Fold Isoprenyl transferase.
Amino acid sequence: MSIRLPFIKNKQKTSNDKQMEMETENIPNHVAIIMDGNGRWAKKRALPRIAGHKEGVNSVVKVVRAAYKSNIKVLTLYAFSTENWKRPKPEIEYLMKLPKEFLHIHLPELMEKNVRIQTIGDFESLPTHTKKAVQYAIDKTKGNDGLLLNFALNYGSRDEIMQAIKQIMTDIDGSKLSIDSLDEQIFSKYLYTQGLSDPDLLIRTSGEQRLSNFLLWQLAYTEFWFTDVLWPDFSEEVFQEAIQEYQQRQRRYGGI
Ligand code: IPE
Ligand code: IPE
Ligand code: MG
C-alpha cells in the first residue's frame, strides 16, 4: 500500500494506482477455455485417466472463483465434445457422472456467488442422469444475473452449424424466415450460443494448439492464449497470466 501524503495537491499516479488500473482495465467480457490434458496429467503419475478428470474438476472450481473475482461476465468451459464419444466406455461413463458430482458439492457456492449455469451442445443426447443433474442446476440458477457459467457439453461446432442450417431451412420452408433477411446476426441466433457475445479470449491448456471443433463461428476475432500447463494443474495464477496478456493485446477486427 502506498502512503498518501496530505500536502500533495495534484495527486500523481503512483505505481499502485497504475497496477490497480491495469487489473480492472480491458477485462475480457467472455472467456472460453478448452480444458485439456487430464489424461496426460494422470499418465505422468501412473494413474488411470479418470484420476486426471477428477483432479480437473478442482481446476473448474478454481477457474470459476477466479473469473468471479475478476468480474468476467461469461465463462465457457469445453467439458465434452461430440468427438469424445470415441473414448472407452468406462471413461465416458465417468465423465458423464462429473457434472452431478461437481454440482452436488458446489451448487450452494454458485448460488451464493449469483452464478447462472447454462450449457451449449446437444443436450438431449446426454445420459438421463447427467441431464437431470444439469437441468436442476440450470433451473435453480436461472434467476441469477452474475457470472454466466456456460458448459459446452456434447458440443461440436460443426454439429452446431449443421443443426442451425437445418432449422433455418425449416423456417424458410414454413415462411418464418426469408432468405433475403438472413444475415450474420440472424444466423447467430440459430446457434447454441444465441444471445451470448463472442468470446474475447480463448485459453487452451496442455500445449495443443488446435480448436478441436470448438466455437468455429464464434471465435472469428477472439484472442488465443495457449499454455503447456495441463488442466489439472491450472490455477488462478495461470488464469491471471492469460488475462494480463489479453489486456496487452490490440484488437483491430480488420481495421487499422
Ligand atoms: C480433457 O483432457 C478432458 C476431456 C476432453 C473430456 P483429456 O482427457 O483430453 O486429456 P489428454 O488430452 O488425453 O491428456
Ligand atoms: C477437446 O479436447 C475437447 C475438450 C476439452 C472437452 P480433446 O482432447 O478431445 O481434443 P483432441 O482430440 O486432442 O483434439
Ligand atoms: Mg485431450
In short: Residues 28-156+198-247 form a domain with the Undecaprenyl pyrophosphate synthetase fold (CATH 3.40.1180.10). The pocket of IPE (ligand 1) is lined by residues 35-40, 80, 84, 95, 206, 231 (CB under 6 Å). Residues 89-112 form the longest helix (24 residues).
